[in-house]
Design goal:
There is one protein chain. The protein is mostly helical. It has two domains: 35 residues, no CATH class; 105 residues, no CATH class. Helix 3 packs antiparallel against helix 4.
């Protein structure tokens, strides 16, 4: 407010009505009132973000705030549904191929011969192990670095889902095991 009234008083003063335009800038303020900085003037700028940290130490990266509400975690675009389904598909695809190679049974025979209790036990164990860090506020992206990234896990899970469906469809159409 004070700056606004000061600017109005400068602009309305009789000095601003100078007829010689060479000594007046674009706001009709005489150049004697405007400080002049050369084009290559250096101005020190200091960052105030890491003021509490000691010198010589790297600032600790702050993890983004992650919602721990049940409805946010299990929403359609939340982190839980695709991640858990992808992990289950990865385990299921490898287990189905391994069991098929070992016993010679197709996927449907494996499910019919006692595969449902194993599926339920694996689902409960893997789901609870995946949910505990998310309910504590730890995101999968914060722990991913190098080759083992959260994006790589998502893509591997998607490919495992497609592979498991393709295995079941191929065995159904073929009428027997793939191997």
């Amino acid at each position: 407010m004070a700056a606004s009234s000061a600017m109005q008083s400068i602009l309305s003063s009789p000095l601003t009505r100078v007829t010689n335009r060479s000594s007046v800038n674009q706001f009709l303020v005489p150049t004697c009132f405007v400080p002049h900085l050369s084009r290559n003037a250096t101005m020190p700028v200091r960052c105030m973000a890491g003021q509490n940290e000691q010198k010589g130490q790297e600032p600790t990266p702050r993890a983004p705030k992650v919602s721990t509400k049940f409805s946010d975690l299990f929403s359609f675009s939340g982190p839980v549904p695709e991640r858990i389904n992808g992990r289950l598909a990865m385990i299921g695809f490898v287990a189905a191929l391994g069991q098929e190679f070992y016993t010679g049974q197709d996927v449907f025979a494996q499910i019919a011969n006692g595969g449902i209790p194993w599926f339920l036990a694996t689902s409960i164990l893997l789901s609870s192990a995946s949910l505990i860090p998310l309910f504590k506020g730890i995101s999968a992206e914060s722990k991913s670095d190098g080759v083992m990234t959260s994006d790589a896990e998502m893509w591997n899970g998607r490919f495992a889902m497609l592979g498991l469906v393709a295995l079941a469809v191929t065995e159904y159409v073929k009428g027997g095991t793939l191997i």
